[in-house]
Amino acid sequence: MPAASSSSSQQPRADRHHWTPEQVRALGVVTDLVTACSVVYKVGKSQAYARFRAGTLDFPAFRSGRMVMVPVAPLLRLLGADAKGEAA
User: Fold this and answer.
1) Is-contact 23 75, C-beta < 8 A?
2) What would the mean pLDDT of 22-51 be, rounded to a whole number?
3) What Å distances lie between residue 48 and 9, 54, 74, 79, 83, CA to CA?
4) In angstroms, rounded to a whole number, what is the distance separating the alpha carbons of residues 49 and 62?
5) What are the extents of the domains in the chain?
6) Which of 5, 47, 49, 74 has its CB 3.0 to 4.6 Å from that of 59, i.e. a possible disulfide?
């Protein structure tokens, strides 16, 4: 029997290679760097932090303690959608 997943209480996740604007909006106001890079670049943790260190992200990101956080609204703009659920 497969083990129960503990991710049910975390942010909604989507397939790493296809995020819809609705799924991105469901992340809330901010998300973590790895999720943001999954949405925009379809890359994982190593590439996400490499882009952050190199300063090559196409969206704002900021440190909050040990975490790197990203506002969701700029991600939606990169996807051609706005934060209110309308196409841009």
Assistant:
1) no
2) 96
3) 23, 10, 16, 18, 23
4) 12
5) 16-78
6) 74
CA distances from 29 to 1, 12, 77, 83 (A): 36, 13, 13, 9
Q: Report how far apart, in Å, the C-alpha atoms of 35 and of each of 7, 11, 54, 71, 85 are.
A: 14, 9, 18, 11, 20
**Residue 71 pairs with which residues in a beta bridge?**
30
| CA separation, residue 60 to residues 5, 30, 55 (Å) | 31, 11, 10
R_g over Cα of the chain: 13
For the cut 60, the answer to whether the pLDDT of residue 22 exceeds it is: yes
> Under the phi-then-psi rule, with left for phi > 0, alpha for psi from -120 to 50, and beta for the rest, what region is 55?
left
User: Position of tokens 């925009």?
Assistant: 40
Q: Residue 41 above 50 pLDDT?
A: yes
